[in-house]
Amino acid sequence: MNKRKSIFFKYFxxxxxxxxxxxxxxxxxxxxVSSRYFLDEKKSLMMKNAKALAxxxxxxxxxxxxxxxxxxxxxxxxxxxxxxxxxILCSSDGYVIFDNSGEVESIDPSLLxxxxxxxxxxxxxxxxxxxxxxxxVGTSFTANGPAYYVLAYASKADQEGYVWNIMEIFIVSAxxxxxxxxxxxxFATLKLTAPITEIAEVSKKLxxxxxxxxxxxxxxxxxxxxxxxxxxMAANLKSYDTMRNSFLANVSHELRTPMTSIGGFVxxxxxxxxxxxxxxxxxxxxxxxxxxxxxxxxxxxxxAKIEAGELxxxxxxxxxxxxxxxxxxxxxxxxxAKNIDIRGLDVDRVNIFADSxxxxxxxxxxxxxxxKFVDENGYIEFNFSSDADKTVVSIKNSGxxxxxxxxxxxxxxxxxxxxxxxxxAKGLGLGLNIARSIVELHGGKIMVKSVKGEYTxxxxxxxxxxxxx
Length: 469
What we know:
Layout: H1 7-63, H2 69-83, E1 86-91, E2 96-99, E3 120-124, E4 134-142, E5 147-155, H3 156-207, H4 221-270, H5 279-308, E6 316-319, H6 321-330, H7 332-337, E7 341-343, E8 351-354, H8 356-373, E9 379-386, E10 390-398, H9 418-423, H10 431-441, E11 445-451, E12 455-463
Parallel strand pairs: 7-9
Antiparallel strand pairs: 1-2, 1-5, 3-4, 4-5, 6-8, 9-10, 10-12, 11-12
Helix pairs in contact: 1-2, 1-3, 4-5, 5-10, 6-8, 8-10
């Protein structure tokens, strides 16, 4: 499998990208905030120092009008050393009285208007006074009549150095944290994708035909739901595989028995083992077996069409008594041979809304089953009822009945009770299964009731109108 296309690789890549982008955004915000913070603090400190120097110089001028300069210059130098900034003391005409850097001799007086007693700030060269852009703050004061200005200035390099120091600390911390987080994300991703890998492995075994595999119950809700659905699917596939194997075995058995008989009798006729005078007898047996094969194939085709959704009932309204009477006439000789009492046909016309051919097959299969299992001199009783929504048909026969273990199985495909195998070796075991399929195809239901040693009763209901109406 291409690792670049795996969920693990994609999830790990996405998490890593999100973390990296988050760190980059955090670094950018930190850079802007620290830069702004440094500038605000630097301006505030420079302004505070400028005002302090202005106040100190003013007091010295007032105390010693002719001997204040030496003390002012010393104070300015001390402030410059302690605050990493340069200071200028100038008069209102732009004459620079003292500049601790020694670079400035005069300032354009018109530029000093930005600095009042409350203070002022500019970023630039102060009209070409400096050869590079600087952060400049200043304040004014008066002493002995004239106005004076104290200016403090610092280069942007200090700000950049401060920001770079902050970023160095951030980058080192980010790398350490990023490595730790990447390890955590890696192992968390492994743990998160482990169930997917396990499901893939189990799916391969399931695809190879091992339907006994199951998934454990995971802690995550989504995986727990997936595990439950997967295990249910595996159980259904196992059930279907068992049914398929049983179906193939039953079909093989049902086909092999008549084909063996046909082959044996044909070979006997061809090689002369069967006398000429008995050939007709055995040809009739062959014909019966061929008809049995035909019924088996037809029944299986009908079941396949129903399960594939290809068999659509052509509904019309008709009397359910008509196919019942037709079927009873078909089995007249068997009814007379067992002296069966037919009950419940003296009723008014009972109409149903269904496919007449398919319902005829349902009734044929149920009546044939009743005749097969009714006891000698017993009875077969019909009951019909109808209301606005549905019609109910019941076929009940006296006889040995079914045990509780047999009741859930009677509609299974190819199922034959032990007694059925003895009574009718030619039965296909498909009649009741087809009956149930046809009834359910019409949107109805079919059920069986039985009391051991007394009776068996099949009841099916059909809606009087199709479900879509």
